[in-house]
Design a protein that fits this description.
The chain is an all-alpha fold. It has 15 helices and 2 strands. A two-stranded antiparallel sheet has the order 1-2. The radius of gyration is 23 Å and the shape is globular.
Length: about 375
């Protein structure tokens, strides 16, 4: 028997239900981890009231101090936190997309940290050593970073295709090669910044102003065009996977290489393109870090955003828009986490929330069964 065509409201309800079913394996672990960590703070730091204050402080540190704004403070109390949250969200998004792109062809690229580092160095060198108009200098740095990151991912891809070397082994080894090469030799050695009197400062030379990413709200906040670049990359990758033949080939190669070959897809070429894209996205993350906030390659990059990208990709279920949403959330939590120190909670507490959410995402079967019970595929039945 043919089913009746759903009315527009019926189609809307069905679309909303499918979206909720798809999002539950990501949303439920995040909410559960927040609840567990809230209980932990309440138990260890003096009760529920303290936990509420600590989590509110983290929230205002992420989205802006709304209470102070309502009391008459300047709009800077919103713009400054937005800048910190967006800066972290952009890096997490690009590295998360890097991992997600490789996921689509069945590869696990855990070398985003090394690819980010070489991209950051390329952006720093082009930004400091080359003189171009502002309209060309920034794009040239971004292009150099993307090329450097893509080329750094090329080696593992060729080893995988020619010798069957597992990409997890090759990419993680190249992470440490990048650390040794860049932060133990090039940055403190041949590429270190020189100042008068033969002295030196930590990191490479400062990039020219023409290479810096534009600030979106002036000097009052570090909010820059990096977040727009990251969001644009997420949308483009989503459209590529969902609407283009090449994206279909990526998904087919990831789901079943032999079936893809039987369908006439060049799996080797598809894998190679995906890994180059993956490395390029990580390289762009390095460029955003250098051009947007650091203005040079520092002595060390600090936070391991490349490894954090793995968590963003897994929690976001490998979907580009899911990665963008997850990265935006955790970027905000990290930016606001510093304010929790006022209540005796370490500033790295949001990373604990992230880690717990990642562990809970692994229990996907549990969330799928809950979705079948709470959000049946069809109204009126499971």
């Amino acid at each position: 028997m043919l089913e009746a065509t759903p009315t527009p409201p019926g189609r809307l309800r069905r679309a909303a239900r499918e979206l909720a079913r798809a999002a539950l394996p990501s949303v439920a672990p995040i909410l559960t981890s927040l609840l567990v960590c809230f209980v932990a703070v309440a138990a260890l730091r003096g009760g529920v009231a303290v936990a509420v204050d600590a989590f509110l402080a983290m929230t205002w540190g992420a989205i802006g101090d709304v209470p102070r704004l309502l009391e008459g403070a300047s709009v800077a109390v919103l713009l400054r936190p937005w800048g910190e949250s967006a800066t972290k969200a952009a890096l997490l998004t690009l590295t998360g997309l890097s991992v997600a792109a490789a996921f689509r062809v069945g590869l696990f690229n855990i070398g985003a940290q090394g690819q980010l580092m070489v991209g950051a160095l390329a952006a720093a060198v082009v930004g400091a050593a080359v003189e171009l108009p502002a309209a060309l200098h920034g794009p040239a740095c971004l292009l150099a970073a993307a090329l450097a990151g893509g080329l750094y991912a090329l080696g593992p891809a060729l080893l995988k295709l020619s010798r069957g070397v597992h990409e997890v082994i090759s990419t993680i080894m190249l992470n440490w090669v990048a650390v040794a090469l860049i932060e133990n030799w090039l940055v403190p050695g041949p590429l270190r910044a020189q100042v008068g009197g033969g002295n030196s400062v930590a990191g490479t030379a400062q990039i020219h102003e023409t290479a810096e990413l534009p600030r979106l709200v002036g000097e009052v906040s570090r909010l820059n065009a990096g977040i727009l670049l990251a969001a644009g990359a997420a949308v483009v990758l989503w459209l590529w996977l969902a609407r283009f033949v090449g994206g279909y080939e990526w998904r087919a190669a990831g789901l079943g290489p032999e079936a893809a070959r039987a369908a006439g897809i060049d799996v080797r070429r598809t894998v190679l393109r995906a890994m180059l894209t993956s490395g390029a996205l990580a390289g762009l993350a390095g460029a955003v870090l250098v051009l947007g906030t650091e203005q040079r390659y520092p002595a060390t990059l600090g936070a391991p955003y490349g490894f954090d990208g793995i968590a963003m990709a897994l929690i976001g279920q490998g979907h580009p828009l899911g990665v963008l949403a997850t990265s935006t959330l955790f970027g905000g939590l990290r930016a606001g986490g510093t304010r929790m120190q006022l209540f005796g909670v370490h500033k790295s507490f949001p990373e604990l929330i992230q880690g717990l959410a990642l562990l809970l995402v692994a229990a996907r079967l549990v969330w799928t069964k809950l979705a079948d019970r709470w959000l049946p595929a069809r109204e009126g039945g499971p």
